[in-house]
Design goal:
The termini are far apart. This protein has about 45 residues and is mainly alpha-helical. It is about 50% helix and about 0% strand. It is flat and about 45 Å long.
């Protein structure tokens, strides 16, 4: 018997979930570019 437990989380496949994931990727890329240029990243929308 296994001594560990796992929780199966389903990925959010709704349109809203995909939209939020794409906004998150865009904000992450923007902050990485800002950090690379030596600027402070702007958080939020």
């Amino acid at each position: 018997m296994s001594k560990t437990a796992s929780i199966g989380l389903l990925p959010s496949s709704t349109l809203f979930g995909r939209l939020m994931a794409s906004i998150d990727r865009l904000l992450t890329a923007s902050s990485r570019i800002a950090i690379r240029n030596g600027d402070l990243p702007h958080f939020g929308l």
